[in-house]
Design goal:
mainly alpha; disordered N terminus; single chain
């Protein structure tokens, strides 16, 4: 279960349309992408193909996710090229590769890895029982565990709700 939460938390930092963006884009996705099955980035691709029709809130959330992804890429791309060449992205392999070279990473990339690790610990601690209860059969990756937790938001423990809400606030 910890591995599943690690993947979910990484989506807090990296996915342009994680469960966080789904709130802002939910009505757009229902209106424009209702026949698109979720997973593997299909909803994101659909929303992007309808960019001119998106609500301002959804456009803003997608742009913020893209900017965050670019910041991560800029900070870690040289290290990724150096240490993780040939690693197939997915299932946390890329993050694990960077983590395995943590002492050799550039300061900016190292800081991102540390930030993600802190988030992983905090969300894992706050949400482990909820993830086990509500998301046990969910295949990890692409923000599915996080989406599962968000879909059970009214049933989550107060600690998990509070931690997820804290993680959703934009970084200053």
């Amino acid at each position: 279960m910890r591995r599943n939460l690690i993947i979910a938390v990484l989506s807090l930092f990296a996915l342009p349309l994680s469960a966080r963006a789904q709130d802002a884009c939910r009505s757009d996705a229902e209106r424009l992408c209702k026949d698109v099955p979720p997973g593997e980035g299909r909803i994101i691709a659909c929303l992007k193909s309808h960019e001119s029709e998106l609500s301002p809130a959804c456009k803003e959330k997608l742009a913020a996710g893209k900017a965050k992804l670019e910041k991560i890429k800029e900070a870690c791309q040289p290290d990724a090229d150096k240490f993780c060449k040939g690693i197939q992205p997915g299932d946390g392999r890329f993050a694990a590769c960077l983590k395995s070279h943590e002492s050799e990473l550039a300061p900016a990339c190292h800081q991102i890895v540390e930030t993600v690790e802190t988030a992983i610990r905090e969300v894992h601690e706050a949400c482990k029982d909820d993830a086990g209860k509500f998301c046990e059969g969910i295949r990890p990756g692409a923000g599915r565990i996080l989406a599962c937790l968000k879909s059970h938001e009214s049933e989550l423990s107060e600690a998990c709700k509070a931690e997820l809400t804290r993680r959703e606030k934009p970084a200053k």
